[in-house]
Amino acid sequence: MASKLTEYFRLMLFSACLLAGLQVPAFVDQYHKSLIAHLSESELSLNAFQNDADKYFSGSLEELITHYLNSPDPVFNAGGHNIQQLYQRRATLVQALARFNQTAYSPYYYALIEPLADIQQEVWTHFTHTVVLNQVSIILGMACGIVPLLFLTICAQLFKAIRRLIGAAKLLSRQRHSHSTRS
Fold first, then answer.
1. Total structural domains in the chain?
2. What is the pTM of this model?
3. Could you list the residue range(s) of the whole structural domain that residue 122 is in?
């Protein structure tokens, strides 16, 4: 009976890990789409200021920001800080998207390990659980299902080996003890 329960537990663990692994590519895809959407929104927010920079500062947003920041008018000065934040946000998003697209594995690294925290949180909050059935998701799902089972099996085998060693040591100790009391 216990071995049946153990097998059911292992099957449930494998299934749960497999399903979790299949979600990873969907999460990475949604993170990518969110990153692109934020970048588009950021560029849209800067368009009017870019037009002013094109007109008055040969296209340099940095010079436009400096002009606003150096203005004695507190309204213009505050506007300069706001434009600077928009400009820095766009630069951050451009850099994040470039890193995301570097290699075949970088999307997973930059969406899961080193993401933009606000975008990752937004994706977690609005994540729709879907199963993307492509080669990567199947491999990842199988790996997420098999690795915990292998770990569990290795731990169980180690536990059994340790129990056998302890049992053998106790038996040897008893034999030595009974042999020494006879002498």
1. 1
2. 0.73
3. 2-182
